[in-house]
Amino acid sequence: MTSSSSSRPGEFELIAQLFAPLATDPGAYGLRDDVALLAPPAGQDLVLKTDAIVEGVHFFAADPADLVAQKALRVNVSDLAAKGATPTGYLLSLSIPQQTSMPWLTAFAEGLARDQKAWGISLLGGDTTATPGPVTISISMIGTVPRGEAIRRAGARPGDLVFVTGTIGDAGGGLEILRGGGAQLSDDARTFLISSYRCPSPSPEFGARLRGIASASLDVSDGLMADLGHVAEVSDVRIVVDSAQVPLSEALEKLWGKGVVQRAVVAGDDYQIAFTAPQSSRNAIFAAARDCGVRVSEIGRVEQGSGTGLLDRAGNLISLSEAGYTHF
Amino acid sequence: MTSSSSSRPGEFELIAQLFAPLATDPGAYGLRDDVALLAPPAGQDLVLKTDAIVEGVHFFAADPADLVAQKALRVNVSDLAAKGATPTGYLLSLSIPQQTSMPWLTAFAEGLARDQKAWGISLLGGDTTATPGPVTISISMIGTVPRGEAIRRAGARPGDLVFVTGTIGDAGGGLEILRGGGAQLSDDARTFLISSYRCPSPSPEFGARLRGIASASLDVSDGLMADLGHVAEVSDVRIVVDSAQVPLSEALEKLWGKGVVQRAVVAGDDYQIAFTAPQSSRNAIFAAARDCGVRVSEIGRVEQGSGTGLLDRAGNLISLSEAGYTHF
């Protein structure tokens, strides 16, 4: 099982060249020890999350490597943001086939560095392995939240309002374009949707502002209605969404036309925050959104009951063809 | 990217059936939230480690699934053990192709459960994804160590002795047998070596006893000499090993015959603890080994200088054909 590729340096050189400079936290010891050591901050809970992305499943082989790296980080940052937590560092497990080139890996490390700088986080440890299969990137993100203040999925109460950040369905639209669709769209519209697929834009700054305000929260990854269904289930409530209020981009409306809402709310990979909050918090929510440069839309309400419903303008239920994204 | 296999339940059912019962820590919320929350214990440092294993690289498709799961956990527990840390929980990232069956996954979960019980650890969170490639399992292990007491790679001092647990090279021998070698060996010998490859046996109990005793420590995964080279490098010392003292199993001696030592010290996947300690600690080390049921051998000494050397009975350097295992 020992082999080396002529096109790139060996494992130890690769770690020293590309990844050790990313291990800025002193507890990572420049990746020159077996483990990372962290002195947990007083008064904080630790938040842990792992998500993997796989070439051919969550990204395309032709996607720019720096964006692949950022997507790998951001799908995890997104979960922390939805809990009101602040990311602090991460572990990287990278499985790469022989043909993965040094330029690809260099760009990959640059993408990690860019997001590390943006959020002030550090690589804490990593593992690089060979694989006969696709590039597989597993990130375990570590963050902190003031003790007891994490925003859970459970907690939505009848009478609460339902909100979501950003626009919904764009990543699904971008995926369709990367698969050959959307020839009728302008270059700008295509680029916007593809960018949404390739690299989500979570805002832990906004998530942190939701602490003490949101009654329940999660990130939208399986599809808006499926994810609100998770909130409804663990909160033991019913969530209804007004289809006319679901935020959609102009580009997506052009791509999907009539029926765009029904498709958008079951598309996956949005990595937006969906949350519930009492009506009395509405002003505070929109103020926080302005401060953080985040778009927020009020899209529905929490009722007694169970499950979810998407309503048309007349208040009638719209049936959805898919329950939402599942990973296989 | 939404699809489902007729041979096994969907993602959410799989998590509920197989993995949620493993999330015994209350902070894991039964895997029904986006993240795990941990209140870090007072007076402890957190220890973090990630290692992935890939079908066809670190294990064979025909290996029993419960042992694959245990190997995935244990390669990480091994790192914590070498630092004197106690594992407390882990994140699991599991990428599986369509053909991975429910019986395989059930056995995989049973393997996790077995080791969780043995070490009192909990699944804290996880991610299951589809892959067009081989089964890929990435574990991020979290543990604790009394503040400031983790045993580092740096710290070996000239005059210290060098020790290693268990026997060396058995996993490399097991790999050779699984590739068709060792037909001359007894069934018992073959089974022993194969077991060493499939499922290492780290001892965090013994590792914890080394706190305050060992001057430097790491787990042997790249090969004994390569790993001692890591200690030598970061401790800025030279490490010499007496080849006659390297602990070898009878089975491996039968498999590799003359030259067994030279091969054993560059074989990978031992997952034993190699450590240095002052001579005054010798008695305490062997007492701890007895208490923990761990074999420990004194194999060499730390000198001024750099690099490593393997010495024959006459004290002459033995040249080694390989620097040790690298992961690609």
Question: What does it look like?
Answer:
Chain A folds into two domains: 11-146, PurM-like, N-terminal domain (60s Ribosomal Protein L30, Chain: A); 161-311, Alpha-Beta Complex (Phosphoribosyl-aminoimidazole Synthetase, Chain A, domain 2), CATH 3.90.650.10. In chain A, helix 4 crosses helix 5. With 328 residues, chain A is of the alpha+beta class. In chain A, helix 3 (102-119) links the parallel strand 3 (86-96) and strand 4 (122-130). Residues 1-6 of chain A have low confidence and may be disordered. In chain A, strands 7-9-6-10-8-11 form a six-stranded mixed sheet, with helices on both faces. In chain A, strands 2-5-3-4 form a four-stranded mixed sheet. The first copy, chain A, has ten helices and eleven strands. Chains A and B meet through strand 1, strand 2, helix 2, strand 3 and strand 4 of A and strand 1, strand 2, helix 2, strand 3 and strand 4 of B. Strand 2 of chain A pairs antiparallel with strand 1 (36-38) of chain B.
- Classify the oligomer: homodimer
Count of spatially separate domains of chain A: 2
With strands numbered from the N-terminus, the spatial order across the biggest sheet of chain A is 7-9-6-10-8-11
Order of helices and strands of chain A: HEEHEHEEEHHHEHEHHEHEE
- CATH fold annotation of the largest domain in chain A: Phosphoribosyl-aminoimidazole Synthetase, Chain A, domain 2
Report the span from N to C terminus of chain A: 30 Å
Helix count of chain A equals 10
Under CATH, the homologous superfamily of the largest domain in chain A reads: PurM-like C-terminal domain
Kindly estimate the percentage of residues of chain A that lie in beta strands according to DSSP: 15-25%
Q: Uncertain runs of chain A with pLDDT below 50, 5 residues or more? A: 1-6
The radius of gyration over CA of chain A amounts to 21 Å
Structural class of chain A: alpha+beta
Mean pLDDT of chain A: 94
CATH class of the largest domain in chain A: Alpha Beta
User: Roughly how much helix do the residues of chain A carry, as a percent range?
Assistant: 25-40%
CATH architecture of the largest domain in chain A: Alpha-Beta Complex
Largest sheet of chain A: 6 strands, mixed
* Largest interface summary: A-B, 75 and 75 residues
State the total count of DSSP E strands of chain A. Answer: 11
What is the general shape of chain A? globular
